[in-house]
Amino acid sequence: MSRPSPSRTDRVDFRATGDPALLEASDRGDSHLLTYRQLYELWERQQWAVQDIDFSRDRADWHERIPPDERFVRMYGLSSFFIGEQRVAAELGPMIWACPQEDMRIFLCTQIADEARHVAFFDRFYEQVGVLEGETLEARLQETSPHLNPEFGELFDELLHRRVQRLAAEPEDLEALVEAVTIYHMVIEGMLALTGQHFIIDYNEAQGTLPGFVEGFTNVARDEHRHVAFGSRLLRDMASAEPRYGEAIQRALAEVAPAADGVLRPRFIQDENAQIFGASVAETREFAMHALQRRLKVIGLATAA
After folding, report:
1. Residue 128 contacts residue 59 (beta carbons within 8 Å)
2. 298, exposed or middle or buried, with CB in 10 Å at 0-12, 13-18, 19+?
3. Most buried pick, 32, 41, 248, 290, via CB within 10 A?
4. What is the pLDDT, as a whole number, of residue 268?
């Protein structure tokens, strides 16, 4: 099974997040999770600026080195991140209100800033590289939407959004908060986003393409590991406090599993052995499940995977 690249996820700044998926000790259920305050302090130390990234080489690569049929395949991965970052940023407000501790809320405020920066990163990449024709952020979001598959909409606009709407109406519903964090941090970020980032970054590094994108996307991935570490901490704290929260985690995972699997398989890929970004659907699924299993063991729900 493919493992995270030593040049990236073995870096000190990545492992500093405490994301259980990066730590071999998680296979034994050993916990190295940071506190909410420590995660906030790490956010302060791990700042980066979209405007500092140079996309000049990326523009030449996109228009001169990458053939049209490969650009189409790449657009699937890029679109799911561009739109996904915009969708999840909009869902964090009610989750912040519902958090039972102030230090949880403070960290989630940093995540809103991160998600906004991620949208800005993709938008600047699209604009400066000349990937899309749209002249505004809204136009580019609309233009890239057709590259997504139906399961993406089901996962974001139905399964996650339904929990968030419940929290907006009843912020004291902690089971809804646990389900929302499970879907957002464990599935959308932990299984789907970080799996896609791993293979997309590896593929571009192997091909020697889009160096500016790789630089920024690596920063995005580091942010996501920090977010997932927060989700792991919150879910472990909640599940250890009351068994019903552990049941809520397992219930949410079971409900979203078909949609998550659909997101991992692009609609234009029928054969599970077909390669996309240097890996098959089966390999990406295995990678995502291994990461989930490590996190669940640390949360205390090893049998849920």
Report:
1. yes
2. buried
3. 248
4. 64
- Tell whether 133 is covered by a domain: yes
- Which phi and psi (to 5°) does residue 71 adopt? -60, -40
Total count of domains within the chain: 1
Q: What is the DSSP letter of 28?
A: G
Q: Which residues of 55-79 are buried (b: 16+ CB within 10 A; e: fewer)?
A: bebbbebbeeebeeeeeebbbbbbb
CATH number at residue 241: 1.10.620.20
Burial 2-22 (b: 16+ CB within 10 A, else e): eebeeebbeeeebebbbbbbb
Does residue 21 belong to any structural domain of this protein?
no
Question: What is residue 14's predicted lDDT score, i.e. its pLDDT?
Answer: 93
Residue among 201, 214, 202, 186 at smallest CA distance from 288: 186
Q: Does the pTM exceed 0.70?
A: yes
126 domain-assigned: yes
Task: Give 34's contacts (C-beta < 8 A, 6+ positions apart).
Answer: 17, 18, 42, 229, 233
Classify 67 as helix, strand or coil.
Answer: coil
- State which residues form the domain around 208: 36-41+51-304
The predicted-structure confidence for 183-241, as pLDDT tens digits, reads as follows 999 999 999 999 999 999 999 999 999 999 999 999 999 999 999 999 999 999 999 99
* 26 domain residue, yes or no: no
Which of 183, 213, 188, 215 is CA-nearest to residue 75? 213
Contact 302, 296 (CB under 8 A): yes
CA distance 16 to 32: 10
